[in-house]
Design goal:
This protein is of the alpha+beta class. The protein is about 60% helix and about 10% strand. A hairpin with a 5-residue loop joins strand 4 (about 375-380) and strand 5 (about 385-395). Helix 2 (about 50-60) runs parallel beside helix 4.
Length: about 400
Amino acid sequence: MTLPRPATLPRPHRLDLFIALSGLTGGLVLWSFGLYLTRDHVFGQRWAVLVPLCAMAGAEALRRTAPRTALVVAALAIVGDQLTSGNLATLLMFTDVVYASVVYGTPAAARRVPYVTGLLTVTFTVVLLVWWENAAALVIGALIGTVSFLPAVTGSIVRNHREAAEAARLRAEQTALLAEMDRTQAVVAERARMARELHDMVANHLSAIAIHSTAALSLDDPATTRQALTVIRENSVAGLAEMRRLIGLLRRSGEDTEPAAAPTLAGLDALIAQAGANGGPGGLSFVLDDARERAAGLPAPVELAAYRIVQESLTNALKHAAPGEVRVALAREPGALTVEVTSPYGERPGPTAPGSGAGLVGMRERTSLLGGVFGAGPVTDGRGRRLWRVRAELPVDASDEERA
């Protein structure tokens, strides 16, 4: 059976030991010169003054690490000091212990000590005034308040200021942390946007280059090789121009310049024509079915998202679609723009380009940022043909109830 270890007092703080030693030394000096607070006493022995002095010095040593114990010991010591000739150092150390019990004690003690000392001050003053029937009782009451109530109130004020300063520091740290989180999220969002733009602008050209270069290497036909090299050169020049435009935007970020024009749906004809030139040798044909009203305008973010979705869908068709017709359909429904791209689904003869899946992720992210609905996967049309369909519904009006 293991016996519980007896509770031990915490180790005194170094500064508290210095204060206790200084108070004890001062009290011994006063005692050696015979300087006392009063001549009326119960215990007349000269050494009796040293007992409460040493007890008070011990309480001072515990003022920070055990404020409640220190206050109890100090209260007993000050009562004992009143039964002797009295020592000024004992009285001064008592005021410091009362102050420390409020500053370093528990929140409950910090609230109670000022009220208790104030009540004791008023009680002693009233009792002495009734007993003595002399104005000297008011002076004694003021002295009691000075050595008990006043240090407690001072400690309460200091504690409140410290807690307010700590709360302000915590608020500042939280504000800085939130600002850093916002900055990190902004950087991540900007990097994701740049990744989508870079992928959508360059992937189409690089896919065409990969397919036609593979065809030129695998087919020993001068005409086919020349045609492939022509397509490779056109896509290389176009891809280089897109890269230079993106680099220019990044370098000019932060400057007071006009924003660069973003691609719009008006450029779909050129995009379809370019896809036809790249996919024609592989048996692909491209058709644009635009059922929108030409006069109806669209917000710039919606037009950019729709253009990039069509661009990436055409790139995927060039890399993976079987020979046949690739159809791009646009329709304006109440509160939304519908973009649908269908391509033949099946085995593709000839060279292909590898895919990473980043294109579908980018299209889904663009649609999600606008609060729309995105879907991609194989479907079967009315004639039993297997198609790969990409469909996105992009809200047109941000204040529309359906978008909310």
